[in-house]
Every structure is written in structure tokens, then in C-alpha cells.
Amino acid sequence: MVAAGIGLVGRDAERRMLAALADDVRAGSSRVVVIRGAAGIGKTALLDDLAAHATGLRVARTTGVEFESDLPFAGLTALTRPLLTHLDELPGSQLAAFKAATAQADAVGPVDRFAVYAATLSLLAAAAEAGPLLCIVDDAHWLDRASAEALLFAARRLLAEAVLLVFATRDIPAFAAPGIPELHLDGLDASSAAELLRRGGVDSPLVTQQLTTLANGNPLALGEIPQAMTDDQRAGRVPIGDTMPTTERLERAYAAQISSLTPVERLALLTCAVAGTATLDLVMGALRELDLPVAALDAATELGLLRVSGQSVEFRHPLVRSTVHASGGPGGRRAAHAALARACSGPLDADRRAWHLAQAATGPDAAVAQALAETAERASRRGGVAAEAAAWERAAMLTPDQALSAARLVAACPLWISSGAVDHAERLIRETLLLVGDDPGTRAQALANRAYLAALRGDIDEIFDELLDAAEQLAPTAPAHAGRLISLLVNAPNRRWDVAQMLQVCSRAYELADPLVGDHKIPKVAARLAYAQVLAGLPEATPLALATMPVSAARRSDGSCAETGMVLTWIERWDEARRMFDRDVAGAREVNDISLLAYALPLRAELELRLGRLAAAYADALEGVELAEAMGQPVNTAEATVALARVEAARGAPECAAHARKAIALAPGHLGVEAYARSALGAAALAAGRYPDAVAELTMVDTMLRAGGVVDSGAVAHEGDLVEALAATGNTEEARAVAARLDASAARTGGRVPAAVAARARATLADDTTAEMAFEAALRVAGQVPAPLERGRTLLRYGQWLRRARRRHRARTHLEAALDIFETAGAAVWAEQTRAELSPSAGAAPVIVAAADALTPHEWRIAHAAAQGRTSREIAEQMLLSVRTVDYHLGNVYRKLGMRSRRDLIRRLGG
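User: That's the sequence. What structure does it adopt?
Assistant: C-alpha cells below.
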């Protein structure tokens, strides 16, 4: 509690902690903290004290307002208003996104919300360059979802910027900030409570004790309740009355003050309460619409309920606002909202106008619903996913036409899913299916939402038959919609590697949608059929994948290219696969589509892994995991994490096992994730010489795939590792059986990698009389494949055999060639195994291996990007960091690797 002119009472430890954070910021570091506590516990007073003593720090501040929680980026707009002079320092794409999100400019196209988040970080960093910055967000639990996500995104990436970002929130789950330090406020101690009561006119020790116990140390209650007591009550001559919860006492005290106002004054105060963070000009406009004089606010200001300063209208405490709002009654609130809607006449106030109209509505209203639909479309362009979802939902509720109402609900559902409100989305999907009637397109979209949600939750098997039947009912009148829906259902058999059903589902979807012709092409349907055909070992997969390429490339980047690229990777059309992945990754970066990047980067990492480009694969996989985790979808995160584990297995990184097991835990029952995760565990065990462990993991993978009907080994590529592990453990006959399957796969598909792996397997299993000839043949085959790690492993096995045959000179030649391949690729564990074959003194690990081991994942991504010639600004845009943080990490990279400049990085890591 802050009393006028006397400062804060108590909170010495908390003030010291915040002062220390401010000192760190003055020294050039970033600090973030969340202050949590009950209503009235003193969070705002502590923030006021921090701001008052923040010498040398520029202060930007905002307060979350419950009635603005559906206005996208309202809180962010208010907080950053004093910082807008630094806008021109933002990268171009971020600048456009930020201006569109905060309604400073019209969006040319859809704005990805992560572009706005990155722009928020860049703006804070740019403002901090001009001097240390203190950003305060009070009542963060009432922030609109978009603002909260943007500020938390920035908070987690602040490092070397002179920014102190402080959130204050009630101790409720509404504002979750995992990973950010927290300061929990409890009640004041007895002596501080007594001092606060004394300053409020309470001198009686008995009354002090009663009020201290009743308020439980809550400073707002200790400061406010005495003001509602009589002199006799404060002196202890009259009982203070029955006990009641602190909040109820405060609300009663505020209500008593509000009831002392005239009806005109109460309506004026209510207008301020429902106006949120609107400017004073807008509030004055609403008062004029209500024929109320400006002087109608004077009494509330004199009572201390309201503060008017400049263009801001602020309540003394959020409980005052909520008490005013509750006491206004439904009719009064609607009148105030209607007046505010009429006052919102400017183009930048269109969203506020729509929401005020919605709050003023007493029933369905087509005009208001249309205004909200337009708000939803603007929110889409501005990147406010939750706000867009809320606007579509509210528009649907106010839409008189049932079919249009259903269509608007359909639009809301995937947005709620994307924002994380999956339970709410599920309820809306059920409502939508009751409303859609006979419109096949809307019904198909509603069912697709249900399939998408089920796939994310991992329970699509439970509704597979039901949705398949529903799609077939749509097929006669809406074949393309039905085909798209059936294509989505492939997630069910894909989870369990049921190739026969995958092929059946995808073939039917292709038949209905005819996805590569017509005005509305759906290349994903074709890519999924090619995916199933590869697994089934069907030759039709290659021409279908190639035919899908131009159709995918002609679309706006939406994942079609990435899905096609995955199939092309499996069938060894690596150049075409790279073009497809690069197309979607570049398109996603252009518009900051984080969802697409999180999907496409792990797939491209698999391509880079197969081509032996481990540095690039590691960078892609790390970024994919970071973005997938930011999205908060467990299945997406599992798929990205398993890609990272596979790269780490080749690198020999110790984190491989933890990441593989994390992926399995994130997507329980998803056999696709499990197979890739166990293949990583098996590959890591094989490279480390833990052959029984490798056999156990890889046998599980093999059993899983064969049980599901996977014919082509190109998808998981585990069989070569299994042959080597079985041979090393003496299971020769089993190894020969797996090698025979590899041979058959290579002969059937013409795959060059399976042929090379099969040739190495034959040589590994050959007896001493035929081994040399077999290894020479294997080297010739491996030399025809642009997969250097496969050639390196063949050279290693050949060198090992030559050493055992006591032909040391030839062995050294092959082992040194293998070592060069592994060191160049950064395959540290294979390089170490090769060095051990050469001699214990074969030399230290090369710089690329040492770098991968010495740097943190963040540092590695930055080092790799810098080694490709990217500037700090380009790296900052790509990694959603500030330029200063990139330079900070680069300094650590130079120090750890003993380098002095980017030129060193490019020369030594740029390959």
C-alpha cells in the first residue's frame, strides 16, 4: 500500500530484490520477473515504488483490463506507445507485422503472430540501446492473449539488452509464465500492518489486532477498510461488525462510495469502467453520446476512485473497476457500451466499436455479427489468433442465419485449437455439427476440425470409423471436401504403421479429390498417397511424387512442398527434395509462419542427415524443436524432437537418449514417433559399441515396421544398423536374413543407399576368403551415392577387417579416409571409433567436432548461421532474437573455439 506522501510500508526484502535487478539492467544485462499475489496484496504499490526509484531507467507501463481481453495486442499497444520512436530500427518484415498488429497500418496479407512477437523483442532491444528500460505490466492476468504471448516470448529471449520486464499478476493460473523467475507476495508482517493502520487513523491496539487478523496482512484492505469505518469504530468504542472475506469488505467499501454518487455520476463512472484502456478523448465522446457533462466525473475523482491524467483514465484499483462494473446493472452496462460504440468513429477504433456493439446487443443482430466478422478478419491479418477465434465465436452467437452461424463457428474452432484452448474448441465443434444442417462444405470443415483435434490429442483411432462414414456420406455431393477429410484420417493408421489401411485411405481420398487437376488443387492429398505407396514398396510412388512437385510449388507455402519433399527424400530424389523443403522454409520465413517452420525444418534435417551434412541437420533440428515447443503442441514437438535425436545419434551427442525418450513420452502410442526414436537409440548404441543395446532397440523398430506392413526400408533406414549390431553380437543368421531383405528392397526400388548398405552388410558377414572382394564391391557401390557417412562406415569396416588380417598399411589408408569423412561431417562418435582403430594418438578432434561439443545448442545455431555468411541482423531475424543477443552469443562462440572473427568461423566451420 502506498499512502500519499509517505511511501511504501514494509516490503524491504522485495524492494531490495527489485533494486538489484534494476542495478543489473543499468550494467547492461536483461532481467525478467513475475510478481504473484492475491488481490490487494500490494503488487501495484510495489510496482509504483519500483518505478519511482528507477533512477536512470526509462519507464513504459500498462495494465491489463478484463474487458479488453478480446482485443488483440491491446496491452502490447499500450505498453509500447512510449517506444514507438524506435520502430524504424526494426527489420522490415517485423516492422510491417508490428504496425499491422497494433493497428498503426493495414496488413497487406495475413500477419503471423510470431513475427509480431519477434518485433516486440526487437523493439524492446532497440529502445534499450538508447538507455536502460523498465517495462511494467500490471494485472497481467487480464492481458489479451496475443499481448501476453508476445511479451512472454520476448521475456524468454532477453539476454544482453538493458531491459527489466516486470509482470504483476494475481496468484491464479490465468497468467502462466513457466521458466521465468517469480516473486510471491504474502501479507504484510504484523508491525508493517500496524503501521499502515495507524496511518489510516486506527490507534486502538484491540482494533489493530482485529483488523490485522481479518485482513490477513492484505495491505489494500488495511489501507481501505479504515476509511469506511466511523471514528468510534477506529477508536474501538463501537464493534467493527461481523467478519467477512477481505475482498467482500473492500467491495462493500467501494460500493458505499459509489452509492453516494448521483445517477448521472454513476453512469459516467460506469462508462469509464467499460471503456478499458480507451483514451480520455474516447471516454469524453461517449459521455457526450449519453448527454452527460464532463463534470460528471469530478465527484468520483474527488473520492479517489478515479484518476484522470493526460489522455489516461485510471481506477484506483482493479477492484474499484470491477465493483463499478458489477453495480452498474445489465441495462446500465449496455447503455455505456452502446455510447462507446457510437464514439468509436475512427477507422482505428473499428475493433473496439464492434466489441462494444456486441456487449450492447440484447439478442441476435446481423449487423453486429458482421462487424465482429470483420474484426475477426482484421485480427487474422494482425496475427491475433485468440482474438480472431473469440470474434468469430461471438459473431456466430449473434448471427440470426443458422447456416452462416455454423460457418463462423467452423472458422473459430481451428483458431481455438492453435491458441491452446482445445477443450473449448471441442465443445464448439460439437455445437457446430448440430448447426450445419445440409451444407456439405461447412459439415466437411467441421468434421475436418474434429479430425485435426483428434490427431493432436492422439485419439483419432477412436473416431476413425465414424469420420470415415461421415466423409463417404458427403462424397456424392462434395467429393473434393470428402477427399480432403479422408486424407486427414490417414493420421490414424500412420500412428500405428498400418500401411494397408494408409494405402486404402489415401487411395480413396485421391479418387474423390482428384488433387492435381482443376481449379482447387490439393497436393497434400497426392503427397500422402505417394507416402503410403513408398511404405508399401509400390513403384507408382515416384511418378506421383514428381507430378506433385509443380502443383505444390505453385501454391503459397502451406506445407505441401514439405510433405512432398519427405517422400522425395525417401525415394532418393535429393535435389528435388531440397528444392521442395527450401521452398516451404523460405516461404515460411518470409511471412514468419512458425507453424510451418516447425513442421518443415525437422523434415529437412532428415534430408541433411542422410546426405552427411550434420552441421546443417543439427541447426535445422534445433530450430524445429524450439519452434514446436513455442507452439505448445505435444505431437509436433515429439516429431521435431525425434528428428533432433536422430541427428544427435550420428553426431554422438549424449543428449540423444534423453531426446528420444522425451519424444516417445510426448506422443504415447504414436508408433511413427517411437520407431524413429528407437532407431536413434539403436544407432547411438551401435556407434558407441553397445551392441546388445543396439540389437534390442533396432529389433523393436524392425518388428514394429514389419508388423505394420512397411516393405520399403527407405522411410526409417534402420536395417543396415541392425545387420551390423546382429553381426557384432554373433547373431549371424538373423543378420543374413535382414541383409537379404535389404538386397531385395534395393533390387525392387533401385535405391542406391539400400544397395550400398546391403553391400556393406554382405561384406561384414563374408568369410575371410571372400571378404576382401565383398568390401571392394561395397566401396564401389558406396562411391556412387552422395551419402558420405555410408562410404565412411564402409571404409571403417573394411579398415577393421584389414587390421585383423594384419594388413596394417592398407588398413591405415582406409581408416584415414574414413576419419576424414567423419571429421568433415562432424560425426564425432564415428570419428572417435576410427581414431581408436588407427592408434590412441591419432590426434585431437577437428574444429567442427570440438565446436559441436563445446557450444550450447543456441550458440551452435548462431555459429552455424554465421559460418554460412549471414549477418547478425539476418541471424536475429531467423532465430527470433535481438541483434545484441546474437552478438553476445557470438562472443561466447569465439571465446570457446579460440577464434577471433567471423572470417575464422566461415573458414573453419563454413563447409
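DSSP finds 48 helices and nine strands in the chain.
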